[in-house]
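Translate structure to sequence.
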């Protein structure tokens, strides 16, 4: 593409047989392409021989052009491209598109060089490997490829997604971006926020979300240390998949209402499990099921292997089948008693113990998605011309953006405050002091997401309801933000948890 042309050269190519135009100082010859243009021939003929930059960006995302690079025949003499094409790993230069700690000249007390290295490495990885696969799977509904799982395993990404801990010691993490021994909850936050930039909510859960919520029960509660290590190795190497199976049609929020039973055999060596589970993420492709069951005097948690009597089938939901949402039936499944996680009849502690991290991870994702939506809206408002003005020139639209930015920034700051407590509070104190605040934070983040999703669709108009093109991220977020408002604890339940924890801490004396 070394040839250069004047604007007069381009202007001559506005005939039936020869159709050229300019976009962003580049000259395109679409003479042979007009019939294939998805938007029809007429709109291309209207801009023949002209600079079509404004008309193009009024309708299209920049990425569209990269599909048609072979139509570009040269550049305009003495003119330079103004549009920025992001490269893998780049930070966005759009205001509020990155958290303040990544936005010069803002300072932040929480992040050091290892956080910056990890952020950079994970962004490159996401841009190069996760996003292309996520977008493809989101469309075709297939499950995550073994190739991507293997790649994540090799880079220690699967390990890091379980949060800080001994399992990271000695593991090479994204080319040594961070030492396992120094990995803290801010590194964990970065992993959570960078990963969701693939903009595919269904695939996001399909990408080993079952492991994030299920493996921790094995890591913290399996008594046989050798077996525990073997299972962790299988999962971290990507050879085996695991999920958390608590919810049933009969009981979701009210975990105590579970009806799946586990009855001990007469010789006391096995449990026989019968029952069902509903909406289990990654269940269809899992080998291990961390399962909530009813034993004689309460709830217990068993690690159940796929085998005789375990059946899984996909459930269709409003996000992509790539998530692997599953209905499970257990029919006289024989489970060795060694597979009991934690104590018999005290499984509620196993179930509750992981909730803080699960909910906090979901806030990381929701907050980052809100930010991406803010970025999309800011870009769109500067491109879209209505009534002869850019959308951004409408005060009503600026008010919507102000609300969206404020909601995003306030939740990121609250999230960082809570994350700092997680880094500095003994694990046993976290249940007492952070269960309520994390519940309130998740409730508030998904309420904010509701507002952001709603306003963003208004800003994008029809495109906000269209799965391809300019508004595809907005459509996806509006269709899927509710998953975070229900999964891991519904808003009402979490709000109530937060207030009940505050009630317990009220001073005894009347105020
Ligand atoms: C796509 C998807 C994936 C999931 N993945 C998993 C998984 O991997 N593993 C797993 O175990 N579960 C999973 N779940 C289940 C999820 O955690 C439950 O759906 C959730 O806990 C809510 O339970 P429920 O749907 O039975 O709603 P219910 O408990 O029937 O509640 C319905 C509504 O009632 C209201 N409500 C309930 N209790 C109260 C209260 N105390 N006060 C006020 N209002 C209340 C809330 O508005 C709530 O949304 C998944 C669900 C979905 C949809």
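Result:
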């Amino acid at each position: 593409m070394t040839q250069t042309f004047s604007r007069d050269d381009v202007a001559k190519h506005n005939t039936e047989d020869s159709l050229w135009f300019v976009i962003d100082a580049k000259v395109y010859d679409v003479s042979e392409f007009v019939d294939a243009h998805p938007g029809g021939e007429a709109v291309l003929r209207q801009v023949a021989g002209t600079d079509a930059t404004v008309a193009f960006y009024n309708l299209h995302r920049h990425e569209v052009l990269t599909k048609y690079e072979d139509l570009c025949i040269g550049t305009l003499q003495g003119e330079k491209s103004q549009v920025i094409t992001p490269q893998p790993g780049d930070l966005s230069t759009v205001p509020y598109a990155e958290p303040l700690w990544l936005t010069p000249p803002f300072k932040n007390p929480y992040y050091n060089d290892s956080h910056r290295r990890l952020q950079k490495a994970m962004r490159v990885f996401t841009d190069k490997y996760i996003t292309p696969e996520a977008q493809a799977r989101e469309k075709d509904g297939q499950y995550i490829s073994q190739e991507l799982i293997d790649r994540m395993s090799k880079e220690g990404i699967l390990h890091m997604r379980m949060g800080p801990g001994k399992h990271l010691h000695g593991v090479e993490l994204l080319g040594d971006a961070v030492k396992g021994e120094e990995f803290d909850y801010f590194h964990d936050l970065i992993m959570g926020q960078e990963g969701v930039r693939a903009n595919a909510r269904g695939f996001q859960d399909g990408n080993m979300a079952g492991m994030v919520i299920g493996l921790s029960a094995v890591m913290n509660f399996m008594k046989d240390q050798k077996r525990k290590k073997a299972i962790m190795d299988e999962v971290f190497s990507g050879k085996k998949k695991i999920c958390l199976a608590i919810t049933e049609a009969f009981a979701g929020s009210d975990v105590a209402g579970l009806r799946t039973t586990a009855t001990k055999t007469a010789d006391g060596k096995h449990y026989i499990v019968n029952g069902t589970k509903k909406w289990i993420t990654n269940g269809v492709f899992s080998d291990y099921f961390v399962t909530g069951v009813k034993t004689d005097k309460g709830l217990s948690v068993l690690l159940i292997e796929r085998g005789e009597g375990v059946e899984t089938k996909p459930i269709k939901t409003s996000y992509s089948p790539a998530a692997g949402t599953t209905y499970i039936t257990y029919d006289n499944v024989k489970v060795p008693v060694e597979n009991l996680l934690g104590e018999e009849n005290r499984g509620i502690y196993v179930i509750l113990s992981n909730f803080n991290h699960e909910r906090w991870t979901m806030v990381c994702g929701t907050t980052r998605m809100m930010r991406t939506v803010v970025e999309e809206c800011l870009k769109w408002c500067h491109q879209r011309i209505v009534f002869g003005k850019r959308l951004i020139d409408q005060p009503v639209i600026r008010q919507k953006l102000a609300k969206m930015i404020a909601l995003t920034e306030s939740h990121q700051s609250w999230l960082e405050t809570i994350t700092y407590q997680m880094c500095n509070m003994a694990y046993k104190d976290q249940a007492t002091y952070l269960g309520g605040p994390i519940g309130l934070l998740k409730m508030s983040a998904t309420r904010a997401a509701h507002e952001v999703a709603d306003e963003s669709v208004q800003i994008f108009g029809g495109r906000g309801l269209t799965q391809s093109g300019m508004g595809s991220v907005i459509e996806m977020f509006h269709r899927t933000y509710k998953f975070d408002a229900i999964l891991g604890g519904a808003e009402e339940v979490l709000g109530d948890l937060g207030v009940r924890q505050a009630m317990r801490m009220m001073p005894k004396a009347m105020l």
